Amino acid sequence: ANKATYSNVEALYASEAFKPVYTLTFSAGGPNMVDRYNKKVQDYLDGLKFDQFPRMAIENLYRDFTRDIRDNGVAKAKAVAIHGKYYKGSDRKIQNLVAECDPLVAKWITKPTEYRKIYLVPTNNAQQASNEYVFRLNIQIPSDAQFPVYDVNIKLPREVASAAGSQQWYEKMTMNGNVLKNEGRFTITAPTSANDYECQITPLQVQKTGNNILEVRFKHNAFKVLEVNVMAQRPIIKKN
User: Fold this and answer.
1) Do residues 111 and 195 share a domain?
2) Which of 41, 102, 160, 176 has the fewest Cβ atoms nearer than 10 Å?
3) In the chain, which residue ranges form alpha helices assigned H by DSSP?
4) Residues 169 and 226 occupy one common structural domain
5) What distance in Å separates the CA atoms of residue 179 and residue 173, rounded to the nearest whole number?
């Protein structure tokens, strides 16, 4: 039952269930036998605590989370991320599920022209009048160009973008830590009903090798899981 719990997750890992009921202090085989026995018991319990339990909990909670993000979605996503802190296994699938729920982990963009859905979970833990959101993209599209350049399109929820015609919808955008500004040849298109609430960032130059982290921060009055769809492609030459 605990694997479906999405409140007070940290307390689960402090449970007595992950501690030996009895620690051997004497054996006719001597101190080495005592140490080997106690280590065997502890290794078994650690396997439960740092592999089997979080793995099952992450799979279960992520399945419930994606079934309906409006049903306690924030709590479930945050629970997945907390379980992910304790998971020491090497299953890439489990690691990816955790990454999908952790707003501070960059989501990889590896295929051009294909939209990728991203879940946005508020970074604050309790509802406020204005809630903090952040998402990070790591643009890793193979390219023959020495200095690859892309258009990055972000399809936003209407509730986030609807006021963008009168005010900037985001607080800050950075590329590898450098602030992006809507000036000169570089444009950040405002998402409006006319463009189906899609923000375009262009031309965005990336490094041929290494990480290319695009970070976007914004605030929203609702405390909920949001969905955005992002896509990168080679710049489309626009006719004046």
Assistant:
1) yes
2) 176
3) 9-12, 31-47, 53-67, 73-86, 92-101, 158-161
4) yes
5) 6
- Residues belonging to the chain: 240
| Distance in angstroms between the alpha carbons of the first and the last residue of the chain | 61
What does the alpha-carbon distance between residue 168 and residue 166 come to, in Å, rounded to a whole number? Answer: 7
Instruction: For residues 115 and 72, state if they share a domain.
Output: no
Cβ-contact 230, 123 below 8 angstroms: no
Q: Render pLDDT for 13-40 as a digit per residue (tens, 0 to 9).
A: 998 888 887 776 777 677 777 778 778 8
- Token reading at 28: 């006719």
Tell me if 190 sits within 8 A of 169, measured CB to CB.
yes
User: Domain span at residue 173?
Assistant: 103-233
Strands 131-139 and 213-220: antiparallel
Q: What is the residue-wise DSSP string for 64-92? A: HHHH-TTTTHHHHHHHHHHHHHH-----H
Cis bond before residue 203 (omega within 30° of 0): yes
d(CA 128, CA 138): 29
Query: Is 144 in a helix, a strand, or coil?
Result: coil
What's the pTM? 0.88
Helix axes 53-67, 73-86, angle to 10 degrees: 160
Report which DSSP code applies to 100: H
